[in-house]
Description:
4-stranded mixed β-sheet, HSP40/DNAj peptide-binding domain, 26% helix, 3-stranded mixed β-sheet, alpha+beta, Helix Hairpins, elongated
Amino acid sequence: MVGKRDYYEVLGVSKDTSKDEIKRAYRKLAKKYHPDVAENKTEAAERFKEVSEAYEVLADDDKRALYDKYGHAGLQGSFGAQGFDWSDFSHYQDISDIFGDIFNGSSVFDQFFGTSGRGPRSNRGPDLRYNMQISLDDAYKGMHVEVRVPKEATCEKCKGSGARPGTAPIRCQSCGGTGQVRHGQSQGFIQFVRIGPCPSCRGKGDIVKEPCPECHGRGKVPTTSKIKIEVPPGVETGSRLRITGQGEAGEKGGPSGDLYVVIFVKQDDRVEREGEHLYMTETISFGQAALGDDVEITTLDGTVAKLKIPPGTQPGTIFSLRGKGMPTIGGRGYGNLFVKAEVEVPRKLTTEQKNLIKEFDKKVAKRRKGLFEL
Length: 374
């Protein structure tokens, strides 16, 4: 993450900026750094990618929340091992409606998305979401788990073409294979152009005359995949893990989308969690509070920590055990465990115990009265 600029700084906005303002800022910068209009095309392409990465994060509520809390390290599960690339960009329409008319099908789409602004976006399959509920112990230690995910895979018989083996789809004559048709309408000096999916091929660009008997012309078949997932230590509710290429199969044998595993951590009866910090309550006796004591606390890592209760501890006093909280995402250390001391008042007392407490209370009251008389 070294050298990465702050995303808010990249877009020139503040942290409390609304999503609409973020979108306006991105559209302005995207036009400015479009490689087809900038003098230094190499530098412009890098800046164009940088502002698009910032927009991908800040325009997404989940990504933005992780970034606000953990910075760039919190997005390690959102992008691939090499960081952000154009396959991560999910706001294609926010670019196409800028450049599709202004630059008349600019090569920005070929350069970054592998397609033309006037044709279909790509054959990449849709992403999938899988919700996973884990215990606080699993969130603390991390875990490896294998899950079964129902999805659609590329038909092996036709290799995703949808056509019977030995045949091939034919290019749609209505749209010329682009999958889109343009409808123009003039009103005086103004011309309106509407672009929509081709009704003949349903936006696919080609037509299957002889469907594959296995997938019935769809190019995909339903399946259930076993996928191994590594849950890193420190995840919390809302954390997202990205499994590249494990989403739905693409059209016409195109690449699969990604699988996003969304983590939900169950509440624990022993402790409460706030980020990397843990909070718990420990009940101590009146004698321990008055005289002091060493109390053993079992932490989430299974070890026993000694909590020193000083003499005269008052009910509600909070103690901190450094480094005994949750691991932080990215392996940057541990949070703290905060222990609140609750003094237990006995409900049943013997006659002797009552007399001792009364005698003690008289002495305390007498000492307090003497202090006021001073």
